[in-house]
Amino acid sequence: MITSTSNTQIKELAKLQKKSRLRDERGIFLVEGPRMVEEIPKERIERLYISESFERKNPAYIKDLGVSAEVLSDPVFSYVSDTKNPQGILAIVKRLEYTMEDILGKSASKCEEKSGEKEKNPQNHQIRVPHVIVLDNLQDPGNLGTIFRTAEAAGATGILLSSDSVDVYNPKVIRSTMGAVFRMPFFYVKDLPAAVKSLSSQGIRTYAAHLNGKNVYDEEDYTEGCAFLIGNEGNGLRDEVSECADCLIRIPMCGKAESLNAAVAAAVLMFEAGRQRRK
Question: pTM for this structure?
Answer without folding.
Answer: 0.87
